[in-house]
UniProtKB/TrEMBL annotation, chain A:
Biological process annotations from GO: amino acid transport
Protein name: Branched-chain amino acid ABC transporter permease
Similarity comment: Belongs to the binding-protein-dependent transport system permease family. LivHM subfamily.
GO MF term list: transmembrane transporter activity
Membrane topology note: Multi-pass membrane protein
Keywords, alphabetical: Amino-acid transport, Cell membrane, Membrane, Transmembrane, Transmembrane helix, Transport
GO cellular component: plasma membrane
Subcellular location per the Swiss-Prot or TrEMBL entry: Cell membrane
Transmembrane segments: 6-27, 34-54, 60-79, 86-105, 141-159, 180-206, 226-252, 264-282
InterPro entries: ABC_transp_permease, BCAA_transport_permease
Pfam family, one: BPD_transp_2
Protein source organism: Pararhodospirillum oryzae
Major subcellular site: membrane
UniProtKB/TrEMBL annotation, chain B:
Gene Ontology, cellular component aspect: plasma membrane
Name of the protein in its database record: ABC transporter ATP-binding protein
Organism name: Pararhodospirillum oryzae
Annotated Gene3D superfamilies: P-loop containing nucleotide triphosphate hydrolases (3.40.50.300)
Keyword rRNA-binding: no
Amino acid sequence: MAEFLQFLFSGLTVGAVYALVALGFTLIHNASGVVNFAQGEFVMLGGMITVFAAQAGLPLAVAAGVAIGVTALVGVALYRLAIAPAGSASVVSIIIITMGASLFLRGTAQSVFDKQIHRFPAFSGETPITIGGATLMPQSLWVLGGAAVVFVALHRFLAHTLPGKAVLATASNKLAAQLVGINTHAVLLLAFGLSAAIGAVAGVLITPLTMTTADMGVSVALKGFAAAMLGGMGIPVGAIVGGLGLGLIEAFTAGYLSSAYKEATAFLVILVVLVLMPRGLFGPKDVERV
Amino acid sequence: MSLLDVEGLSIHFGGLAAVTDVSFKVEAGEIVSIIGPNGAGKTTLFNMISGLYRPSSGCVRLNGEKVTGLPPEALARRGLSRTFQNLQVFQQMTVLENVMAGCHLGEKSGWLSDLLGLPASRRQTRATRDRAMALLDRLDLARWATRPASALSYGLLKRLEIGRALAAEPRLLLLDEPAAGCNAVETNDIDALIVELAAAGIGILLVEHDMKLVMRLSKHILVLDRGVKIAEGAPEVIGRDPTVIAAYLGRHGQDESEKGAASCR
Amino acid sequence: MRVPSWLADPRARVLVLLAVLIALAPLLFPSGYYYRVGTLVFLNALTVTGLVILTGYAGQVSLGHAGFFGIGAYACAVGTSHFGLAPGLCVALGAGLAGGLALAVGRPILRLKSHYLAVATLGLGILIAMVLTNEGQWTGGPDGMSAPTLPLRAWLRAWGVPLSPAQAWYALSGLVLLAGAWMALSLRESASGRALRALHDSEVAARVIGIDVARAKGRAFAISAVYASVAGSLMALFNGFVNPAMAGFMHSIELVTMVVLGGAGSVLGGVVGATVLTVLPQTLTVFQEYEMTMLGLIMMVMMIFLRQGVVPGLVGAWTAWRGRRARP
């Protein structure tokens, strides 16, 4: 039982990070139809910038704030410099552009920072809490709580504020949104900035537990993408459920089967889900129009 | 036994009934038209018959064989071909290659032989090219043969799509708005082509908004409104049918006047 | 001057051009080291030619093709060291394995569109790399293992061929590339090739004219996997060692970038892309150091500004510029 709880805790913690990344994917995908393969780099930047800002003498909270702000700007720049100029490029072109952006950010982070593994101290100490024989790091609670706050805040933003409603309007029909006077360009900038900030939050929250390096982004992006697809691309609740689900599957596979193939199960699950229900768990069944 | 026999065909998307209980027949060499206001379910009906959508209920027979739910490629092998309302031309291929691709079913060469560029594969391509060229000649498209399809005008693309469908040597041809967006000359050309094809024994199922063309060509007309067959018969009969006139003008006019009234309030 | 009739075939012209380039390039080599670089170029170009069939003709992305390259490489290493098989047999076994796997996995995976396909292939590639890393008792784990080197020097001497082993590899890989290019070019102008290019533009229209789209995509996937596997096998024999990075994510991305750089559609473009991206890191240490940043930049810039590929894109941009200058 203690073992089971242990896997549950670690699965939920990692899953919350996947959920945040998936949420970032969802936000951008809904607003622009783009699947942003560079999403994982936002998580990396969140962690790495915090590490180096803190080393430069900033208090941890300020360093984290700087990291989130800078990453949001990177997100905005990504849209402004790489996605918007591509115009109505094909989906394959956009995949390659965001893949290129991911490599570019990763390579640049390796040059600007370094290739070492880093971490900073947990927010509320490192003393584990014992529940039913299993230990839980206080940081895990931060991760879960942070994810919940982000999700609720995003939901309130989208449902109850004017810019939020503009994002939803743009997502559902870009042309119609333009016709009623929404500045869809600004909306897309906002979506990329927000999505990057969410990724950075995930990076800040998880670094004390899993540590960070310049090349952690790809794996995180893939897991987040997998989570988003598991839940059904474009559906916020799906992102959360998919993220937690993937985290749990990984944790239990690592615990009960083989830790070497922990990552493999995640991909296997993706392949199976994709093949059996290509639209994910919560996705609509759509029909091709000809 | 009819060439095409559609019986009680229905489909719903989620809770929305798009087509309900539609039945009709098409004989070889006969032109049957489906008309109806936008959103009446004409293209959806086409998509079910040609295997792109799986009907929720009902039955499609080709030459007496039940083919409901078979994929389009299987239907193509049984002699069904179609064109698309929103043009599905192979834009990156030349005009000639488009029609050559249409000859796919008649081509006999394996992947290995194609990959190795064996003489059999080259012979096949030469034969296909000749056949496609002949077809382009017949459609008066030959002088565009080496142009990329993307360089053609809309009217020519419509014709090219018919050419590609014909390359598969269909016995039943589904034409989805072949004259839409064409000028008067192009419409006349398409008109003549359809008559010629029917005379050659191909059964033709036509969706078209150009009423003059429909009235002139069709032997039999089917009127759909909101997914339901509201009338059918010979062109003269349909032209006078009050329910058809209501579907086209009456309710539309009524809607407009309601909208006008609403904005006054 | 009359053009001989066999040169009227565009396939023949591309092939002759390639053959001439391969034969004449050594005249420009400043040192013997460049035979080695040339061999690397040809083997990468071979993989890329397979991807041109998959991505350029059929329009399907694969972000995991290094996986098949890895299968070919390890087939040679494992087959010879654990089972004592002849290297030539191992090349064939690897190709069969890669092709078979691609056929088996391809059918369900290739039903997926765009991003879903990208992720599924990415996942497949990572799975293959993971197996190669984790099954250490067979594969030597993360450090890799040695592969047999062919006793080229002895053979060459026995046959009286006045070539160094490096030159022999250059010639061999060049010939294999020519064969691969020939097949890709033949396929393009055949019934099967037209089917692939048709489904690239419109899957529904392709199905309506009787093309079995799922089958055609699966074949293209398998063919490109065999190309990658053969290239991987030769790379293993050439280098004398294999490691999981050969099957890794970065290698997959490099391959895709080569295809994109060349403009996806053309065999010649693919060879150009492979040449540029193989030669740059070998000659510029700056490029090697910042490879990731550079690759990323290339991918973005190409897709934003030169979507048709470097050669056609630059030509197009030049003509447009000239045209603008001509009419001020």
